[in-house]
Amino acid sequence: MSEDTKKDVEFGKEPTGDNKKKIAIIGGIVAAVVVVLFIIVSLIGGAYKSPIKNYFNGLQKCNSKTYLKAFPEFMRESLEDKYDDEYLEEKKENLEDTYGDKIKYSYKVIDKTKLTKDEIKDSKKALEKLYEDEKIKLTAGYQVCVKVTIKGSEKKGTSYDTFYVYKINGKWVTIPSSIY
What we know:
about 180 residues, alpha+beta, Nuclear Transport Factor 2, Chain: A, 2 domains, four-stranded antiparallel beta sheet, 7 helices, 4 strands
């Protein structure tokens, strides 16, 4: 081993000068790669759940702006008259008649099934027929089974709902079943 190599590989000694800089740079690069991987996994892993989250957050808060984020942007204008804050308040009041005050929604994804290419193709055709002027790029989809619990001051109830979530124009959304 040459003198230069021995100097670079002396274990048990504090790194000096250029070696400290090299170690700091390598450590920074490793940390950056870990952060980027974490972000990518977070975005890819559960992104399909975001429309379901928006749906229930909007219902909970009686906030139509949040609620409508669950749906594709090209649909929102046609849905905003029907699903306004007043509609969501009425829905909550109806639930209060059954469950009591202080309505709380909770949900849990029980199962998801990836839609086949044919199912995605059929959904895209149906949307393009309804929204002829829109450019619709539908690239993925899931059938998602959700356990929904509604709890009020007097009682609670549980049901199972199915959501169809799609990646349309790069964003995960759901489609109201009433449009088909």
